[in-house]
Design brief:
The structure is a single chain. This protein has about 290 residues and is an alpha/beta fold. The protein has one domain: Spore Coat Polysaccharide Biosynthesis Protein SpsA, Chain A (Alpha-Beta Complex). It is about 30% helix and about 25% strand. It has eleven helices and 14 strands. The strands form four sheets. Strands 1, 4, 5, 6, 8, 11, 12 and 13 form an eight-stranded mixed β-sheet that branches. A two-stranded antiparallel ribbon has the order 2-3. Strand 2 and strand 3 form a beta hairpin. Helix 10 packs antiparallel against helix 11. It is globular, with a radius of gyration of 18 Å.
């Protein structure tokens, strides 16, 4: 399975913060936001990853992340000229995906929870598609999944004025290779975008969509607003300081998944100088 991180968009809900910088490069406590979704794909064991960015932000992402080789990965980059919807990612990434399965994660989404890595890896060999549902107070901001009395998903609607449930669909999706053809058939919505909900509905209509409800032990943040960005920062700060373990540390994940050796981990720790992040990597390497 390959992975795509969609890190485009204009981030207007965060203006003026994002006028000059991509929101996915903003700090969430002690690391760039993009580290968190990247660590999610790496936790799943995915090493070939495509970053889709705006034209003017791509150079900054390349400067930050490089080609992925130091992490034992392979990073590619592509451009989304306009925010034409999430489903367009599979059209842009058609050649990158090739004949493989693909996971898509949004660049401004943060996930955390016990057993999350195992859950991710269980999706690698899927047939069809797999998404998640998470209870929220403001479902009208998201794609919303409706369940019947047997807890089976029966519809998915994008940003409905009157949501049929409180279950939002977080920005993490797993698909088989059919997604490329399905994406071509998604028609722009009234908002003028190729909605990911329309794509998921296609899989649902074919009886090939798995929807798993995230448990209480798992947390999800969509950091697209100032309030949610602040909430995520505070959450990461509290968890890390109490547990003395980092969330979204891509070098640590690379080592845990066997992408790199201990010697490489030690070498990478020097990249961050005297920062708290660099000191964490040094202590980690000593403890192994």
């Amino acid at each position: 399975m390959k992975g795509i991180i969609l890190a485009g968009g204009s981030g207007t809900r965060l203006y003026p913060i994002t006028i000059a910088v991509s929101k996915q490069l903003l700090p969430v406590y002690d690391k760039p936001m993009i580290y968190y979704p990247l660590s999610v794909l790496m936790l799943a064991g995915i090493r070939e990853i495509l970053f889709i960015t705006t034209p003017h932000d791509q150079a900054s992402f390349k400067k930050l992340l490089g080609d992925g080789s130091e992490l034992g990965c392979n990073f590619d980059y592509a451009i989304q000229d306009e925010p034409n919807g999430l489903a367009e990612a599979f059209i842009i990434g058609k050649e990158f995906i090739g004949h493989d399965k693909v996971a898509l994660v949004l660049g401004d989404n943060i996930f955390y929870g016990n057993g999350f890595g195992s859950l991710l890896r269980s999706k690698i060999n899927l047939k069809g598609a797999s998404i998640f549902a998470y209870p929220v107070k403001d479902p009208q901001r998201y794609g919303v999944v409706e369940f019947n009395n047997d807890n089976k998903a029966i519809s998915i609607e994008e940003k409905p004025e009157k949501p049929k449930s409180r279950y939002a669909v977080p920005g993490l999706y797993f698909y088989d290779n059919k997604v490329v053809e399905y994406a071509k058939n998604v028609q722009p919505s009234a908002r003028g975008e190729k909605e990911i909900s329309a794509l998921n509905q296609m899989y649902l209509d074919d009886g090939a969509l798995e929807v798993g409800v995230m448990t209480r032990g798992m947390s999800w943040f969509d950091t697209g607003t100032v309030e949610s960005l602040d909430d995520a920062t505070e959450f990461i700060r509290v968890i890390q300081n109490r547990q003395s373990a980092m969330i979204g540390c891509i070098e640590e994940v690379a080592y845990q998944r066997g992408f790199i050796e201990r010697s490489t981990l030690i070498e990478l720790s020097g990249k961050y100088g005297k920062s708290k992040y660099g000191e964490y990597l040094k202590e980690l390497a000593k403890s192994i």
